[in-house]
Each structure stands twice: as structure tokens, then as C-alpha cells.
Write a structure and sequence with these properties.
about 60 residues, Alpha-Beta Plaits, two-stranded antiparallel ribbon
């Protein structure tokens, strides 16, 4: 599985502040995934935290 940030992102920063192991911010302050966004079974709760914490519903988990 992997996570992604969609064009709905408006830069609230919750993904990279709450889950820095999967996300970082770009030069404009928008959330971006680290690498290709792939994560292991041990990071599913962190990924879900990012999904549920995003007020714009811009973060999603992709199988």
C-alpha cells in the first residue's frame, strides 16, 4: 500500500507534522509523500492518522 496527497491539499501541514515518517512539506508548505509513498504493515496506523487528520481530505491510502 501507499499514501498520496491529492490536489485538494491547501497546506494545513497536519500530515507532515503528525506523520513525518511518511510526509514532508514542499517549498510552498504543501504536504508531499516521502519517496513513492509506499509503507509497510507496521505503518498502517500512521497512514490512517494522516488520512483522518487532513481537514481537506487530501490524503488517501491507495492499495
Amino acid at each position: 500500500m501507499r499514501v498520496e496527497v491529492t490536489e485538494r491539499c491547501t497546506g494545513h501541514g497536519r500530515c507532515y507534522s503528525e506523520v513525518p515518517g511518511l510526509f514532508e512539506d514542499d517549498e510552498a508548505g504543501y504536504g508531499v509523500v516521502l519517496g513513492d509513498g509506499t509503507f509497510g504493515a507496521g505503518d498502517i496506523e500512521a497512514a490512517r492518522t494522516a488520512v483522518h487528520g487532513c481537514p481537506e481530505n487530501a490524503v488517501r491510502i491507495v492499495p
